[in-house]
């Protein structure tokens, strides 16, 4: 029988007192009392109900709970079968990249490239250079602007000649940590992902060969590529060349610790070096790939761009200070929003871990199946009926700067988006007779939340701290 009136208030008071006593114990005593780490979500100090009596939220009670280490926070609402990770700081670039880059094809090469500042700096130059597009109208940064959390503020991406795409520009902060890239996961690696917009006719509308040829014609890029990667990889110098030749040797591995050859200070110096080397071997054997321009190729272009994207990190916020142990970094309303995010709002089922994303694909009911704006998401890349209407979970780091929101930019206002989640998001596929095998089915994680307007405001306040 549920407790009512004074009995419930008395129980809540006792539970709150127990939590305060627990917080006064030293960490070693708490750990001993807690026993071994559980396989399921931590139970928290006391139940959620202890901070939510009949009179409303007890914010002092919540603050007492969240002043403890994360292992003693109230348990998040996690559905059965969901693998989740507790919040944590975003791994800094200074850590060994193999510890934080996604274990997808090319991980070792990407990790080695991220650790070389010259490659990252080259990638940054390329990211902001409109010469990668066919008509020189847009760069990668046109759709991924730093001041907008590396999105563009538009509902749908706009490419060269003002052609509009079908989806919003993808946020980039989670890219180096994600097993698959793009909203539909069609790219298996970051190196593959960065070349996609260059080839897309609705984006940069170019091809790798054309972009490489254009970069080779510039004054700065040949030396920059040579400094970042060393000599050309396409053709190695013949064995008959003199050991004193100044032609740069090919770099055999991305992680080579050998110092890259210094870039020539002037084109005349490079020409003189090349001429001296060529004179020491038969003319027919002089490799064309020994020129500075030949240090540029499509693979290195992709590697440099991928290394730069992998180096991006969200701006530090008060949420990071809170994770670092400063419980007062969030005000009471923001702290209530944090608690709701983890519990009643059910957000932790998908938005967990350091980047607040599970890197998975979910159908939240926005595929517009059978309507004018239909987008079947990952299914369009896999043709697997299980993927109908599924889209990649975006990172919520710096989310307030990254609107409009969702894969189709449908929500220009975060409060409106939260209200939609509160209602259970998009409609389910209508019953069909006969059944439609292609009708997307909304994720079981999406349910009405029964949040009050004040609780939605608190949830919004918390999102603005991320």
UniProtKB/TrEMBL annotation:
Localization per Swiss-Prot or TrEMBL: Cell envelope
Residues covered by region (Disordered): 425-444
Pfam families per the UniProt record, alphabetical: CCP_MauG
Signal peptide span: 1-31
Main location class: other
InterPro entries for this protein: Cyt_c-like_dom, Cyt_c-like_dom_sf, Cytochrome_c_Peroxidase/MauG, Di-haem_cyt_c_peroxidsae
Keyword vocabulary terms for this entry: Heme, Iron, Metal-binding, Oxidoreductase, Signal
Top-rank lineage group of the source organism: Bacteria
Ranges where the Cytochrome c domain occurs: 118-313, 332-466
Chain coiled-coil ranges: none
Protein name: Cytochrome c domain-containing protein
Organism of provenance: Achromobacter ruhlandii
